[in-house]
TrEMBL record:
Annotated keywords: Hydrolase, Protease, Repeat
Gene3D superfamilies hit by this protein: Clp, N-terminal domain
Domain Clp R per the UniProt entry, residue ranges: 2-184
SUPFAM superfamilies: Double Clp-N motif
Originating species: Streptomyces plicatus
A biological-process GO annotation: proteolysis
Protein name: Clp protease N-terminal domain-containing protein
A Pfam family hit: Clp_N
UniProt GO MF annotations: peptidase activity
């Protein structure tokens, strides 16, 4: 599949690995893919994000991802579902951070030892990349660009889709900006 990735898409994948390494995360997650997309300039995805007004709000998107990571990667919808069962995620996060430090639930390595070895992609990150392929095929495009990765993040359930939607970036808004087939998102 990676042979069909454009240079921009490959740069996003490499950037995601860099974000995972910087966070000392054990795997590359969909959030890392979004962070790498936010770093991009001069690509189709960066154009689309800029056209949708995210260009000036990149730091707000990064902060929202950081907050979700503090909640052990739970989306607001998941936290709300737990609240319906009487489980206060904010209270749990506060207690764990009081005992173990800020960000203890993030899954990131806080020690300073160097992580040796290859960072694998989480199951969810792999599904985003597979979804990018399906998006490209559905749009009758031969190559998988960074815009396809961005489109895939909007249709996969989870924190990146939630954060993007909060900032006005949905599959539908992206297809309007990028042009092309505006049909159903392939879920």
């Amino acid at each position: 599949m990676f042979e069909r990735f454009t240079k921009d898409a490959r740069d996003v994948v490499q950037g995601a690995v860099g974000h995972a390494e910087g966070a000392r995360a054990q795997t590359v997650d969909p959030e890392h893919l979004l962070l790498a997309l936010l770093d991009r300039e001069g690509s189709r995805a960066s154009f689309a994000l800029g056209a949708l007004g995210v260009g000036g709000r990149r730091e707000a998107v990064r902060q929202a991802l950081t907050e979700a990571r503090r909640r052990a990667g739970l989306s607001r919808a998941e936290a709300d579902a737990l609240a319906g069962l009487g489980i206060d995620v904010s209270e749990i996060v506060a207690r764990v951070e009081e005992a173990h430090g800020v960000g203890a639930l993030s899954g990131d390595r806080k020690d300073r030892r160097r992580w040796s070895g290859h960072r694998s992609f989480s199951k969810d990150a792999k599904k985003v990349l597979e979804q990018a392929l399906r998006v490209a095929v559905d749009r009758h495009e031969r190559w998988i660009g960074d815009e396809h990765v961005l489109l895939a993040l909007t249709v996969r359930p989870g924190v990146p889709a939630e954060v993007l939607a909060d900032h006005g970036v949905t599959y539908e808004s992206l297809t309007r900006v990028l042009g092309g087939d505006t049909g159903e998102a392939c879920a």
